[in-house]
Write a structure and sequence with these properties.
The complex is a heterodimer of chains A (190) and B (613). With 190 residues, chain A is mostly helical. Chain A has helices at residues 15-43, 55-78, 82-112, 121-153, 160-189, and one strand at residues 2-7. Chain B has 613 residues and is mainly alpha-helical. Chain B is built from 17 helices and 9 strands. Chain B is globular and about 80 Å long. The chains are: A mainly alpha (190), B mainly alpha (613). Strand 1 (2-7) of chain A pairs parallel with strand 1 of chain B. The structure holds protoporphyrin IX containing FE (HEM) and copper (II) ion (CU). Protoporphyrin IX containing FE (HEM) binds next to helix 9, helix 12, helix 13, helix 14 and helix 15 of chain B.
Chain lengths: 190, 613
């Protein structure tokens, strides 16, 4: 059934993609609020300075790599290279999980430096903000899982509809990646 | 889930037939009872769900206000008769005199505010009319994602259920005010409602934020992408502009509230100190140091101020449409109306600190916020001027819908003026947290938004139920509420100027406030009368669903917009057959000697379109 007609002349963007953009705008506001709260709180003094554990760099490498592999997977899909598409998708999935594990290791490393959730607001902010980011990544991994189920169950065929669905996952994945880079740079500069 | 076809302009040109009715498997959205009335994905049904849930919450919230008004108006009278309903919250002394438990007074005030602001005037107003009108006004079969739309309602429902459950906790619901300032909200042991009550409050509102975001994303996407052929942005009826901007405001401000709540949850349960520092409870210091309660206020009001416009913008849109249709005149200054909505929306994000003049912010920064706050008066005045100019010289129908729309304009003027008082930090310092503020926001937001909602309900009731509401009862409802609402809130200005603080349980101990004892009684009696009139409305509403006068003509008001081109009992998809095309703006009333020219009528050769550019 044709439920709705989209008039292509208006934006030319698939409504589901437009929906995703709106959702991302909301998420940007959420992290903007958290990081501005960080700045406001920091300027009030009584702020413990400490070095981020080096695991955070590994983290960053992993998430950037995962963005690249997913992008390559998308390109392979469009070019009809089935094996490459599936393989790269699987690698991305593993990298996504690796990021979560490393994130957890990062928190443990902070604990090892005797920095706990309630040590000082500076630490609390890092735990909470990275935690909320990780929750967003879990959302991405879930979406990717669904995409993988489709990839491995359906017979391979390049269609507009499936391409479009893939793009939704891809855009969100890049978004969570860029969000992480923003947070990392923010923490370092602060 | 239904798939969406992307169609080009050329394809649309030929009749715009999307073969909606060729589906021989029937409409899967309407097959069973559950998918039709409960887990419906049809925007018209979801609108009714939002509306009726909102009505139920409005009754609960208003009933609460009657209970605390009884305490304020008649502090010495026994209210032991309420014991069967309120149970242990009515304390009966040895002499048999029943009085309201003090903590529960705060719980009632808090719940009243939370329920009315979020559940009634946000979900009940914008949820109802965005859902009902967006697809019908822009010529779409449904929302961009009917499924997210359904989720939006059910998240709201869940949020409501949890809030409702919190009313029955043995420690009572949250009692620290609708703004939930720390430390009362962040320290579990600070008062009885701050424990489990506040936990449920937070969970409920986080779910509510999800509901608003799902709804808002959908409204924005639908308005931008799904308009029918010819429906340019400058031909949109004003309600749609208002709903679009409301949704954008919500999408950008509610996530900030979610952030504030996340930090709050950590403070409450995991020992962090985002908002807490050097607090003493029962003479013992808490361990939390280093936090700032002001931080919460910044985060809260960054949402809180846009939130008041999230409440009032839909009412703006509805009132503009209703006034124009029932004055049989084009809306005056259509573009100025749109521009002022946009200006108000932008300004809404840079004035939040006017709620914090007394929180100890830097006076220099306060001045900047004074400036921006006062600038809001300009687009607000433009709107008021245009509404009055629309009425001026019109062939006005004084039906219930239009009466409420006119009443809205009156209330918005009265309440907006007191806003300008409060926007000056020097005047706000003595007036802050007095009854003057209570009067200001109840008139400009509370009652005005309700009037917008009533105008919308009376006007679009036939579009929802194929019947009309009773006009006599409707006018009784209007005049009673109009006079009654002013009777309640006007005197509060004087109390506020005399320094009577808000949120106090009892004033009998204050010599200087005793002069207001009779006034408080008067206000309480007026509140009871107004409450009774709302019951008249509710009865009229439900009675008319089944027994109201039947809608015979497809376009009963002679209106131009597309919702009246769909059949009275339109099913899912709104239009059987092709979707209508649009050729002109929505406000061609009294043009070229014709009473009205619907948007579907093509322009005559050489005729100038007032909207499109
Ligand atoms: C000309 C426009 C307006 C101006 C200059 C204005 C200004 C203000 C100021 C300065 C306050 C803070 C008072 C205090 O706490 O001491 C305030 C409170 C409030 N205003 Fe307005 N206002 C305007 C219009 C509105 C509108 C249109 C709405 C809602 C639709 C609204 C809703 C509220 C609410 C809810 C509060 C009280 C919140 C609370 O403390 O519980 N105002 N207003
Ligand atoms: Cu405000």
């Amino acid at each position: 059934m044709n439920l709705s007609i989209q008039n292509k002349e208006y934006t030319g963007v698939h409504p589901h993609k437009f929906l995703l953009w709106c959702a991302m705008a909301g998420m940007v506001m959420m992290f903007a609020a958290l990081t501005s709260a960080y700045i406001v709180r920091k300027s009030a003094g009584n702020w413990l300075e400490f070095q981020l554990p080096s695991i955070f760099w590994m983290n960053t490498a992993v998430i950037v790599l995962s963005s690249l592999t997913l992008h390559a997977s998308y390109k392979s899909y469009c070019n009809g290279k089935e094996q490459l598409y599936k393989g790269l998708m699987l690698i991305t999935f593993v990298l996504g999980l690796a990021f979560l594990v490393l994130q957890y290791q990062g928190w443990l490393a902070m604990n090892a430096m005797d920095i706990w959730l309630n040590t000082n607001p500076s630490a609390s902010f890092i735990f909470v903000i990275t935690g909320i980011h990780a929750a967003h990544l879990i959302g991405g991994v879930t979406a990717l899982t669904i995409a993988m189920v489709y990839a491995f169950k359906l017979t391979f065929k390049v269609t507009e509809r499936r391409k479009n669905r893939f793009e939704l996952v891809l855009i969100y994945w890049h978004f969570v990646d860029i969000l992480w880079l923003y947070l990392l740079i923010f923490f370092i500069l602060q | 889930m239904a798939n969406i076809d992307i169609v080009t302009q050329e394809e649309l040109a030929h009749g715009h037939d999307d073969h909606h009715d060729d589906d021989h498997h029937g409409d899967k959205f309407q097959s069973g009872f559950f998918s039709r009335y409960v887990f419906s994905m049809d925007h018209k049904t979801i609108a009714k769900q939002f509306l009726i849930t909102g009505i139920i919450w409005a009754i609960i919230g208003a009933a609460m206000s009657i209970v605390f008004r009884l305490q304020l108006g008649f502090p010495e009278e026994s209210i032991a008769w309420l014991k069967p309903i309120l149970g242990k919250w009515i304390v009966v002394d040895d002499a048999g005199i029943g009085s309201l438990d003090q903590d529960f007074y705060y719980a009632l005030v808090t719940m009243h505010g939370t329920i009315l602001v979020f559940f009634v005037l946000t979900a009940g107003l914008s949820g109802t009319f965005s859902n009902l009108l967006i697809p019908l006004h822009i010529g779409a079969r449904d929302m961009a994602s009917p499924m997210l739309n359904m989720f939006s309602y059910w998240f709201f429902f869940l949020a409501g259920t949890i809030m409702f459950a919190s009313l029955f906790l043995s420690t009572g619901p949250f009692a620290g005010g609708w703004t939930a300032y720390p430390p009362l909200s962040a320290v579990q042991s600070s008062m009885s409602g701050s424990g489990a009550g506040m936990t449920l409050w937070t969970v409920s509102l986080v779910l509510f934020v999800v509901s608003v975001l799902l709804g808002g994303m959908n409204y924005i996407t639908t308005v931008i992408n799904m308009r029918t052929k010819g429906m340019t942005m400058w031909r949109l009826p004003l309600p749609i502009w208002a709903f679009l901007v409301t949704a954008i405001l919500g999408l950008l401000s509610f996530p900030v509230l979610a952030s504030a709540f996340f930090l709050m949850i950590f403070d409450r349960s995991f020992g962090t100190s985002f908002y807490l520092s050097e607090i003493f409870i029962n003479n013992a210091p808490l361990e939390n140091v280093g936090g700032s309660p002001i931080l919460y206020q910044h985060l809260f009001w960054f949402l809180g101020h846009p939130e008041v416009y999230i409440i009032i913008l839909p009412a703006f849109g509805i009132v503009s449409e209703v006034l124009s249709v029932h004055s049989r005149k084009p809306i005056f200054g259509y573009k100025a109306m749109v521009m002022s909505i946009l200006a108000i929306a932008v300004l809404a994000f840079i004035v939040w600190a006017h709620h914090m003049f007394m929180s100890g912010i830097n006076p220099f920064i306060a001045n900047i916020f004074v400036l921006f706050t006062l600038i809001i008066a300009v687009p607000s005045a433009v709107k008021v001027f245009n509404w009055i100019a629309t009425l001026y010289g019109g062939n006005i129908r004084f039906n219930s819908a239009n009466l409420f729309a006119i009443g809205f304009v009156s209330l918005f003027i009265s309440g907006g003026l007191t806003g300008i008082f409060l926007g000056n930090s020097a005047i706000d310092i003595p007036l802050h947290d007095t009854y003057f503020v209570v009067a200001h926001f109840h008139i400009v937001m509370g009652v005005a938004a309700f009037f917008g909602m009533f105008a919308g309900i009376y006007h679009w009731f036939p579009r929802m139920y194929g019947r009309f509401m009773n006009e006599t009862l409707g006018r009784l409802h209007f005049w009673g509420t109009m006079i009654g609402a002013y009777a309640i809130f006007w005197p509060m200005h004087y109390m506020g100027m005399a320094g009577v603080p808000r949120r106090y349980y009892n004033f009998t101990a204050f010599e200087s406030f005793n002069q207001f004892a009779a006034m408080n009684q008067f206000i309480t009696i007026a509140a009871i009368v107004v409450f009774a009139l709302q019951i008249v409305f509710v009865i009229n509403f439900f009675y008319s669903i089944f027994n109201g006068r039947k809608q015979k003509k497809m376009n009963p008001y002679g209106a131009n917009t597309l919702e009246w081109t769909a059949p009275v009992n339109a099913g899912h998809g709104n239009w059987p057959g092709a979707i209508p095309h649009v050729h002109r703006w929505a406000y061609d009333y009294g043009k070229d000697g014709q009473e009205f020219i619907p948007q579907t009528v093509p322009l005559k050769p050489g005729e100038k379109d007032m909207g499109a550019h």
